[in-house]
Structure formats: C-alpha cells, structure tokens
Amino acid sequence: xxxxxxxxxxxxxxxxxxxxxxxxxxxxxxxxxxxxxxxxxxxxxxxxxxxxxxxxxxxxxxxxxxxxxxxxxxxxxxxxxxxxxxxxxxxxxxxxxxxxxxxxxxxxxxxxxxxxxxxxxxxxxxxxxxxxxxxxxxxxxxxxxxxxxxxxxxxxxxxxxxxxxxxxxxxxxxxxxxxxxxxxxxxxxxxxxxxxxxxxxxxxxxxxxxxxxxxxxxxxxxxxxxxxxxxxxxxxxxxxxxxxxxxxxxxxxxxxxxxxxxx
Length: 263
Ligand SMILES: Nc1ncnc2c1ncn2[C@@H]1O[C@H](COP(=O)(O)OP(=O)(O)O)[C@@H](O)[C@H]1O
Ligand SMILES: [Mg+2]
Ligand SMILES: [Zn+2]
Fold this sequence. Notes:
Elements (H helix, E strand, L loop, with lengths): L1 H4 L15 H4 L11 H13 L3 E6 L5 H13 L12 H10 L3 E5 L5 E8 L7 H9 L12 E7 L6 H12 L6 E6 L8 H5 L2 E4 L5 H15 L2 E2 L2 H10 L4 H14 L1 E2 L4
Bound molecules: adenosine-5'-diphosphate, magnesium ion (MG) and zinc ion.
C-alpha cells in the first residue's frame, strides 16, 4: 500500500540512557505524524488559519502532539506550512516548550511570545494565572505582549471560574491564535459556552496499514524482534491503532526481548 509506505519514522535521537518512546518518537514535523488523513487536516488548518481551535479525541491519539506542531509552525521561520524542525525558532521552541513558553524572534526580527499552559500542572491558582498571563495577551489594545500563540492543554482542568474568565477575552476580535486540547472523556467538564467559542478539530487515527507500517518501522529501528508474521498485525489491532498505546507496547516488547502477542 503506497499510503502505508509513506509513513515516516522519525529519526531516533541518541538515547541518553533512559528510553522513553513517547518522547523519542514525538513528531517534530507534520510529515512525522502517522496517518495521511491527519497530516492533510493539519495542513488544511494551517492553510485556512488557526483562530481558536479545540483539539479533541481519545487519549493517546496525538492531541498534545498536534497542538505542539501547530504552535511551532506559527513561530517557525520557514515560509513552508508546518514547522521545518530545523530553523533557529523551531530549536528554541523545543527548548522553551516545557518551561511554559518563551520569546522567539520571528522572520521580521521581532520577538514574539508564545505561551503554553499545561493545565495538568495548574492547581487552584489558575484564575490568577489567567488574569496575570492570559487575559492581557488577548484583546488588549495595544497588545501587551505580541503573543504568537497560546496553547491550553487539558483545558477541562481549569476550574469553572477560570473557564468563565476566558469567555470574554476569547470573543475579542484581535484575540491571538488559541489552541486548546481536551480528551473526549472530559468533554462534559468544559463549559458549554466556552466550547462553542472554539472551532472543533477531531484528531483521527491512522488506518490499519498506516499504523502497521509505522509500528514496523519503529520495531526495525529499535531492533525489536517480531515473533511471527501475524504478531504485529494482532498487536496493532489490540492497541486499536492508538499511537501512544503502540509506542508503549513497543517499549514493553523491547524490554521483554520480542514482540509476541497482542501486547
Ligand atoms: N499521529 C501521531 N503520529 C506520531 N506519533 C504520535 C501521534 N499521536 C501520538 N503520537 C505519539 O504518542 C505520544 C502521545 O501522544 P499525545 O500527543 O500526548 O496524545 P494525547 O494528547 O492525545 O493524549 C506522543 O509523544 C507521540 O510520540
Ligand atoms: Mg495530551
Ligand atoms: Zn522552523
């Protein structure tokens, strides 16, 4: 299958002792996402402009990974759609992402700020976080920060008062691009009015053939022995073509010495 052959396995960076497949195989560019449909939809989103987008889907489908790629593409210096993964801004983005954002120099030489708030790390002072950091970046005129993009991962973890605090700034016309993520299972914890402020974007799974080719590529790169012809097929099915589950299963197989059963 040609689509399956196109599944690109990201180059594994040298292991620093600790093996963590989810970070080792985190896609750095759109080409490295598994699934042609997902790649095309992400490109469309970039083509038509990111306004306020809510990425949803089951756990492990790649919501946070796609959010990261979209945010990176908004600061990347290359004129191509999607992050090039090679320029100064892309490199700086990767370093600053885990620190909750930072400043990046754009093509025009202007420093722009990006903000990532992973709600998994926020506690009860999230209202203060929003007041202090987010609200001024939205809609303030002139903008207090020249904010390139705001990412709100696991947005359902925001307490209700904080969700309500977001309603007004999200409606303002010169609102910066906002990328939020939520797992399907948590959807009812999101304020309905807030949900409606966003354009929905559902993350799709790779096809059987794509998931198989991708898992096979990683197994080969990692030197994981595959017990029988049908083993990989059963493994991919048992893990429901979910990228994160496939990666953790492959990592377990590496430790066990081979990929045998459904995983
Ligand atoms: N479409 C995808 N293509 C390639 N790798 C993926 C994809 N989706 C997820 N992954 C891998 O699985 C890991 C977990 O995905 P993540 O984006 O955290 O999922 P979610 O936020 O939906 O739970 C990522 O670090 C990445 O290695
Ligand atoms: Mg996530
Ligand atoms: Zn770049």
